[in-house]
């Protein structure tokens, strides 16, 4: 589980049509810090939402989440994030078009995870 405050990022996701919440992550003891793209449940103001998260692990953990079926301003809000299932690895792309296709594919994979859980 991750938790933290939503902070400003570089807004690349927003520019691509998939806005993300960038989390200033605090990791709960025992949390697997494997990097990749995950289906997640994010709790915002005591309400759960499904999302697609990219988790990068370097010296710290960087987590940004595209929240499905959500719009609103989250800056400064405290959120809790549960990793449900890894759907893919992080990859580098030569073009923005390739990255966009990967994002679309990963979001579809995340949706399938939640369909399978219902």
Describe this structure in words.
- It catalyses: riboflavin + ATP = FMN + ADP + H(+).
- InterPro entries: Riboflavin_kinase, Riboflavin_kinase_bac/euk, Riboflavin_kinase_dom_sf.
- One of its GO terms (biological process) is riboflavin biosynthetic process.
- This is riboflavin kinase.
- With 118 residues, the protein is an alpha+beta fold.
- It has a single domain (2-117), classed as Riboflavin kinase-like (Elongation Factor Tu (Ef-tu), domain 3, Beta Barrel), CATH 2.40.30.
- It has two helices and six strands.
- The protein has a six-stranded antiparallel beta barrel with strand order 1-2-5-4-3-6.
- A hairpin with a 2-residue loop joins β3 and β4.
- The longest helix has 22 residues, at 96-117.
- The chain is globular.
- The model has no long low-confidence stretch (mean pLDDT 88).
Secondary structure: elements and pairs:
Layout: E1 2-7, H1 12-15, E2 21-27, E3 36-44, E4 47-57, E5 61-67, E6 78-88, H2 96-117
Quantity of strands, as a count: 6
CATH superfamily: Riboflavin kinase-like
Oligomer classification: single chain
Order of strands side by side in the largest beta sheet?
1-2-5-4-3-6
Distance between the termini: 21 Å
Provide the helix percentage. Answer: 10-25%
Radius of gyration: 13 Å
| Range of strand content | 35-45%
The chain-level mean pLDDT equals: 88
Task: Please write the string of helix (H) and strand (E) elements.
Answer: EHEEEEEH
The SS-based structural class is: alpha+beta
Query: And the CATH topology?
Result: Elongation Factor Tu (Ef-tu), domain 3
Low-confidence stretches: none
How many domains comprise the coordinates?
1
At the first level of CATH, what is the class?
Mainly Beta
Globally, the shape reads globular
Q: Under the CATH scheme, which architecture would be assigned?
A: Beta Barrel
Please report the number of helical segments.
2
What about the largest sheet?
A: 6 strands, antiparallel, barrel
Protein name: riboflavin kinase
Catalytic activity: riboflavin + ATP = FMN + ADP + H(+)
GO molecular function: ATP binding; riboflavin kinase activity
Enzyme class: transferase
